[in-house]
C-alpha cells in the first residue's frame, strides 16, 4: 500500500485494528495526504472488544469502538497529529 503512495502522497498514518488488546491486528486503516511529504506514523492499535477473549454472546465493544460503530463517531480524531 505504501509503495503505491510513493511520489503521490505522504504524511501517511497507519492505524492497526485489533479485535482484542494484545492480539495482532487483522486490519489496518491508512490515511495519507496528496502531495504531502511528511513522515509515516504507525499509530497505537484501535481495539474493538474490551474482554481479553470471547466470553459470551453479546456486545463487549470498547467505548471507542462503540462510539464509531453505534453512534457514527468519526475515526479522524484517531489520525490527528500529537502537537
What would you say this structure looks like, in words?
This protein is α/β, with parallel strands linked by helices. It has one domain (2-73): Vaccinia Virus protein VP39 (Rossmann fold, 3-Layer(aba) Sandwich), CATH 3.40.50.150. Helices cover 20% and strands 34% of the residues. The chain is built from 3 helices and 4 strands; from the N terminus they run H-E-E-E-E-H-H. It has helices at residues 2-5, 63-71, 76-79, and strands spanning 9-20, 25-34, 41-42, 46-49. Strands 1, 2, 3 and 4 form a 4-stranded mixed beta sheet that branches. Strand 1 (9-20) and strand 2 form a beta hairpin. The chain is elongated, with a radius of gyration of 15 Å. The two termini are 27 Å apart. The relative contact order is 0.21.
The CATH architecture is: 3-Layer(aba) Sandwich
Overall pLDDT: 87
Oligomer: single chain
Gyration radius, in Å? 15 Å
N-to-C SSE string, H for helix and E for strand: HEEEEHH
Based on the model shown, name its key terms:
83 residues; alpha/beta; Rossmann fold; 4-stranded mixed beta sheet; 3 helices
Summarize the structure.
The protein has 83 residues and is an alpha/beta fold. It contains three helices and four strands; from the N terminus they run H-E-E-E-E-H-H.
Task: Compile the SSE list and pairings.
Elements: H1 2-5, E1 9-20, E2 25-34, E3 41-42, E4 46-49, H2 63-71, H3 76-79
Parallel strand pairs: 1-3, 1-4
Antiparallel strand pairs: 1-2
Amino acid at each position: 500500500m505504501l509503495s503505491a503512495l510513493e511520489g503521490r502522497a505522504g504524511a501517511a498514518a497507519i492505524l492497526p485494528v485489533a479485535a482484542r488488546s494484545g492480539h495482532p491486528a487483522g486490519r489496518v486503516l491508512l490515511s495519507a495526504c496528496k502531495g504531502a511529504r511528511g513522515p509515516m506514523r504507525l499509530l497505537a492499535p484501535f481495539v474493538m472488544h474490551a474482554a481479553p477473549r470471547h466470553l459470551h454472546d453479546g456486545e463487549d465493544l470498547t467505548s471507542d469502538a462503540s462510539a464509531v460503530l453505534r453512534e457514527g463517531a468519526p475515526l479522524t480524531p484517531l489520525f490527528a497529529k500529537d502537537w
